[in-house]
Each structure stands twice: as structure tokens, then as C-alpha cells.
């Protein structure tokens, strides 16, 4: 259990609002500029942030994040760069939880215990592991628990109640509820299945349930905040950087959107 992450989510709940969790991949728009991009999320009002570990086959990510991952990989990003970005962000923002969002393969190749140790040393709050089956997570969970790292698993609308209970029993920090079936990306409407998924997930756990996949506007953030403990936004931030004329303009656009979304989660 990561007390920093739990504290931030509890503080948002005590203020009768949802937390805003922003995502951007490491190495994007540049290796050196990634920390600045994440800083823009925080400056705009994100309560916690996720830093993505770019992957060559991001099967759960839509075209927007795939594009950003491709840019990051062409920039030469490595796992050590992801950890360095975490270190820079946590050093500048010691009260903001920083998680790494990653597919399991890069962690497995790096070494689960080594990755956990290096993430903790960098000040990270934990990991979101969307494709790691809980039945195979024992070595990671042991290392993470020893180091006080949160392990966040993903549930989907297709998850049956018994499966939800199995997943939530193994996770810590919060549960990541995928609002829609399919890959990540901004949508005109957030999934109607999201509220039902949150209700069913809460029936199995006392962990906060945070919803991601599809939120891109303050109105959508407010809609999700009405029934979720946290609102997770990624693709919309990535798109702002992709659309910008320069990295600096991208950071400003990210900061602006984060401020709008932070206002949205306060209108639950």
C-alpha cells in the first residue's frame, strides 16, 4: 500500500470530489521534455499522474497514444529514461503521487524486483499493470509490498463479478475501471457501462475506483466524477501536444486542459 497515493485519494473524497489523474508517456514529446509535459499536468491541477512506459505493441492503446509511443521510441526512450522522468517529477512535486503505467513485458525483461526497487528509489508511488494476470503477479506483488508501492489492476465492463473480486483482492492503491470496451482514446460520450462497472467493483472492495478511457472534456469529467473516486485522462493530453506548434505550446495546452478538467471533477 502506498500511503501517499491513498492520502491524496482520501483527501479528494473528504473534499467531496473525485481526484484527477493525468497520463502522459515518457520520452514524449522528447526524452528531456517529458518531465516538463508531466509538470504541466500537475500545474494545471492533476492530483496524481501516470507516466507511461512506451511499448512497441501497445495493444490496449488507441491511435493517439500509439502515435506518442512511436515518437518516444524513435526518440530512443529506454526504461531508465522512464525512471529518470519519475525521479525528476517526484523531486519537483514531493506531495504528488507518480505511477508508472506499463505493460508487463518490459518489467519482466528488466526484472520485477529490480524494477520495483528502482521505481521506489526514484520516488514512484506504484505501477498500473493492465495486462498482468493477477494469478501471475506474485513476484511483483511481493516486491511492491515490501517497498510500499501500489499495484493497480484494470477491470473492464466484461469482467464478471467473481473475476472483479479476484482482481480487487490482489490490487492496492485504487482500481482502474475501463469505462468502455476497446482501446484508449477520447470519445464524444463516456461509456454508459462505466457507472455499472464502478458499482459492481465497489461491491468487492473498499479501494477507490477510478475511471479512465474516453474522458476529454470538463463536462465528461464532471459526469464521471459523479460516480467515481477518480477520473483518469490520457489521450486528450497527448492530443494537445500532438496538435501544438511547439513543445512549449503543447505544455501550455496540457496545463490549460488539466485546469479545465480539475474544475470539472469538482462539479460532481
TrEMBL record:
The keyword Cytoplasm is annotated on this UniProt entry: no
EC number(s) given by UniProt: 4.2.1.20
UniProt-recorded Gene Ontology molecular function terms: tryptophan synthase activity
Top-level division of the source organism's lineage: Bacteria
Reaction(s) catalysed by this chain's protein: (1S,2R)-1-C-(indol-3-yl)glycerol 3-phosphate + L-serine = D-glyceraldehyde 3-phosphate + L-tryptophan + H2O
InterPro entries in the record: Aldolase_TIM (IPR013785), RibuloseP-bd_barrel (IPR011060), Trp_synthase_alpha_AS (IPR018204), Trp_synthase_suA (IPR002028)
Class of enzymatic activity (EC top level): lyase
Keywords assigned: Amino-acid biosynthesis, Aromatic amino acid biosynthesis, Lyase, Tryptophan biosynthesis
Pathway: Amino-acid biosynthesis; L-tryptophan biosynthesis; L-tryptophan from chorismate: step 5/5
Active-site feature positions: 50 (proton acceptor), 61 (proton acceptor)
Similarity field: Belongs to the TrpA family.
PANTHER family referenced in this protein's UniProt entry, alphabetically: TRYPTOPHAN SYNTHASE ALPHA CHAIN, CHLOROPLASTIC (PTHR43406:SF1), TRYPTOPHAN SYNTHASE, ALPHA CHAIN (PTHR43406)
Quaternary data: Tetramer of two alpha and two beta chains.
Function noted in UniProt: The alpha subunit is responsible for the aldol cleavage of indoleglycerol phosphate to indole and glyceraldehyde 3-phosphate.
Record protein name field: Tryptophan synthase alpha chain
Designated gene of the protein: trpA
Amino acid at each position: 500500500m502506498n500511503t501517499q497515493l491513498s492520502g491524496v485519494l482520501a483527501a479528494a473524497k473528504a473534499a467531496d470530489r473525485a481526484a484527477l489523474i493525468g497520463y502522459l508517456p515518457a520520452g514524449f514529446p522528447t526524452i528531456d521534455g517529458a518531465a516538463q509535459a508531466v509538470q504541466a499536468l500537475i500545474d494545471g491541477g492533476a492530483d496524481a499522474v501516470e507516466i507511461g512506459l512506451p511499448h512497441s505493441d501497445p495493444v490496449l492503446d488507441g491511435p493517439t497514444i500509439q502515435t506518442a509511443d512511436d515518437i518516444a521510441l524513435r526518440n530512443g526512450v529506454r526504461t531508465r529514461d522512464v525512471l529518470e522522468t519519475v525521479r525528476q517529477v517526484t523531486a519537483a512535486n514531493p506531495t504528488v503521487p507518480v505511477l508508472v503505467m506499463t505493460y508487463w513485458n518490459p518489467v519482466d525483461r528488466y526484472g520485477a524486483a529490480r524494477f520495483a526497487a528502482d521505481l521506489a528509489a526514484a520516488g514512484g508511488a506504484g505501477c498500473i499493470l493492465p495486462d498482468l494476470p493477477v494469478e501471475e503477479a506474485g513476484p511483483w506483488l511481493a516486491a511492491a509490498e515490501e517497498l510500499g508501492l501500489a499495484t493497480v489492476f484494470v477491470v473492464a465492463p466484461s469482467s464478471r463479478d467473481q473475476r472483479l473480486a479476484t482482481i480487487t483482492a490482489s490490487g492496492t492503491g485504487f482500481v482502474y475501471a475501463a469505462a468502455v470496451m476497446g482501446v484508449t482514446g477520447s470519445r464524444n460520450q463516456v461509456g454508459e457501462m462505466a457507472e455499472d462497472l464502478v458499482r459492481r467493483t465497489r461491491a468487492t472492495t473498499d479501494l477507490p475506483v477510478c475511471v479512465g478511457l474516453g474522458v476529454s472534456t470538463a463536462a465528461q469529467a464532471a459526469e464521471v466524477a459523479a460516480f467515481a473516486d477518480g477520473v483518469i485522462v490520457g489521450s486528450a493530453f497527448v492530443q494537445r501536444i500532438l496538435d501544438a506548434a511547439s513543445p512549449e505550446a503543447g505544455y501550455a495546452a496540457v496545463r490549460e486542459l488539466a485546469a479545465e478538467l480539475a474544475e470539472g471533477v469538482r462539479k460532481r
